[in-house]
Amino acid sequence: TDWTGEQKLEYKVSIGEEPQIWRIPSDKAEAKMVAVIARQFIQEKKSILILVPKKEFFPLITQELSKRGIVYSCPISFLPERVKTVKLLVDWATIPSDSFKTRLVVEELINKGIAHVPGVKKDRKSTKQETIKKRIIEETEIAKLWESVDKKNDLFLVIKNLKDPNKTLIKIQDGLLNLSDLFINFKKEKRGEFIKQLAVVSGIWCNPSELMDDIIKITKLLNPQSITGLGWVQLNTMKKAKGLEADVVIMVGLEDDIVPNPRSDTIEESRLFYVSMTRAKEKLYLFHSYKRPRGISYGQELINKERSKFLDVIGRESKWKRP
Question: Which pTM value belongs to this model?
Answer without folding.
Answer: 0.63
